[in-house]
Amino acid sequence: MRIEKGLLSGAQFLSDARLKRVLRALDGAGEEVRVIGGAVRNALLGEPVHDVDLTTTATPDVILARAQQARLRAVPTGIEHGTITLVCDGVAFEVTTLREDVETHGRHATVRFGRDFRADALRRDFTINQLSVDAEGRVYDYAGGLDDIAARRVRFIGDAMTRIAEDYLRILRFFRFHAAYADGAMDAEAMHACIELRAGLAGLSRERVQGELMKLLITRRADESIEVMTHCGLLNDPLASAPNPARLRKTRAIAIANGVATDAVLGLAALAVQVEEDAERLRGRLRLSNAHAARLVSAARALVAWHGFEAPPDEKKARESLYRHGRQAALDALVLAHAESRSPANDDAWRAAFAHLRDAPELKLPVRGGDFMGRGVKPGPAMGAALKRVEEAWIAADFPSDVAVIAKLADAATK
Fold first, then answer.
1. What is the pTM of this model?
2. Where are the domains of the chain?
3. Which of 43, 104, 350, 414 has an alpha carbon within 20 to 30 A of 149's alpha carbon?
4. Is the dihedral of CA 15, 19, 25, 26 positive or negative?
5. pLDDT tens-digit series, residues 279-337
6. What is the dihedral of CA 167, 173, 174, 176, to 10 degrees?
7. Cα gap 21→150, rounded to integer Å
8. Residue 359 exposed, middle or buried by CB count within 10 Å (0-12, 13-18, 19+)
9. Alpha-carbon distance 351 to 334, whole Å?
10. pLDDT tens profile 45-98
11. CATH class of 1-151
């Protein structure tokens, strides 16, 4: 991607027929519309463009009227803040009226609608996020974002302390954007401001903090950013514990060595979960979804048996973990145990254990209550105890499938 004579050249998203239709609907007759932020930034950095957001001089009522005239579906996703989502042939475009800050509160701002693209751009967080492009491909840069794109550098717009005081979530966003897009060292002014104002993180909603942290954990340089944040004391409040950036770094290396995708939930486990109580604390501290919290709890339970292992568990222990905790928890625990060991990330023995656990068949207890009724055991506590005894015996015998062996275990469980 390049800029020639002030025009963005080769940007595939600009040639999308659905975007062109939305731009035609909103542009002209006294109004102007531009693509803003992430789409422009990513196109210039050679990164994938996912969502295309627009900013316009048109007020929400004008946006709605023009959408109706162009037969575009309009969804008032944040109309009180000037945001309407227009849907064209199944693709959503978030359109926001230009805004100016009236008052900022550290967590949100009181704004009014405006018509000044420059003023709107300069109220944003980072120089690389304020770039915009119009329907003709003309690029607008009010804060040196193009130079920072070329240098792969993340800087706040204007004074870093001021930008952060407007919204303390920008502390976490700075580290996420640096980890995702920057090369080289972190901007010194930004670092100083993040450390000076870190107490502001305590006033943020847990959901907003969780969202930023989970996005950070899947960026390409997450382990480096997390390590700096740890040393600067920026994660103590969000996590309510001392993080473990070394285990996160090795966990990410192990995931790469095993050919699996970087995973935010596993990253969070590596960073902050040693025992089940850690997982439960994070559930409330970060307002985790039930699915994410359950995964952390299950991984912690499975990991208990493998803390301190310098060699991978043998196949019998791996099968037991698979049976007791499920495949996802067993795999998570294996990666975490490997990360705690002194073995390198590409260790062949650990890699073989991972492959075995990944491909091993699911195990199911081959005895049911009816088997014990035939042996004179009545339903109720006695049958529950017999099932528990035969289950433990079956596990200890390494999950035999032979019918005669299973019958002997069931017989022994009734005595």
1. 0.87
2. 1-151, 369-413
3. 104
4. negative
5. 999 999 999 999 999 999 999 999 999 999 999 999 999 999 999 999 999 999 999 99
6. 170
7. 31
8. exposed
9. 10
10. 989 998 999 999 999 999 999 999 999 999 998 888 889 999 999 999 999 999
11. alpha beta
